[in-house]
Amino acid sequence: MSGAESGAELVWDARCATGESCTWDQARGQILFTDIPARVLHAYTPASGARQSWPMPDIVPSFGLCRSGRLVVALRDRVVLLDRDSGAVTPLAGPLDQPESVRLNDGKVGPDGSFWVGGIDESAHRRPIATLWRITPDGRAERRAEGYANSNGLAWSPDGGTMFHSDTTPGVIEAFDFDAAAGRLSNCRVLATLDTEDGRPDGGATDAAGCYWSAGNSAACLNRFAPDGRRLARVELPVPAPTMPCFAGQMLYVTTLRAGRDAATLARHPTMGGLFRLDAGIAGAPVALFADA
């Protein structure tokens, strides 16, 4: 599969400014994703093609699934709970103590039942001043790692013992030993460093073999890495700027962005910002649920 075209198909021409946080909700049979600056969450049902959306009170960088059926959602500087049936939004944590130029970014629920979410510095120089937070079901906000410019790429190994994470600006993918009982990280190591041509690492997902799939946002590709950091495959995508892959069975769904692209690029790739699907040939790791119930 290395260097091969993916055969990815467009399933929703959503034209997201910044599509992100692609997540498979097996219980409802839906792919969920956000359009960050549009302040909206979307749901796509592969079995029927049905679509649904929820407006949010602020930008929506990321979210996770809850045991209760709700969503735990990161906004600019806080985390809330969304009831998808009623649309009700309930505060959970925050405002978080962050520098003024930092907002929340990539987030996922970990095997510990908490919501992990990092920050991004939106200043011109992308300074390494953002934090990776652990948000517990009772609303505590705990700092777990610091010094990131653009925290991204959260994913866990199938056994829950390893957490993958990336810092997009320097192009670094790292791994931690993960203690689910205590919600703690240790033994941080760099797995890979990628430049613009390689595909700077954006959102990530892990497969059933423990391999890590990283959206190469700068290179129109997905990169698949072995647990030890060896790159096993580079999968080319039909549009630039993929942002996040997620597994639904053996199918891999990928969000993309169109914000900041010039008219010529948009003319060549009019479906930028859409939701795409391809056959990965392997299933994904389990999706953890926020322990709110």
List keywords for this structure.
about 290 residues; mainly beta; Neuraminidase; 5-stranded mixed β-sheet
What does this molecule look like?
- Strand 4 (30-35) and strand 5 form a beta hairpin.
- A five-stranded mixed β-sheet has the order 1-22-21-20-19, with no helix packed on it. Strands 2-25-24-23 form a four-stranded antiparallel β-sheet, with no helix packed on it.
- Helices cover 2% and strands 49% of the residues.
- It contains one helix and 25 strands.
- With 293 residues, it is mainly β.
- It has one domain: Neuraminidase (6 Propeller), CATH 2.120.10.30.
Please count the helical segments.
1
Would you state the CATH class? Mainly Beta
Mean pLDDT: 96
- Please list the strands of the largest sheet in the order they lie side by side: 1-22-21-20-19
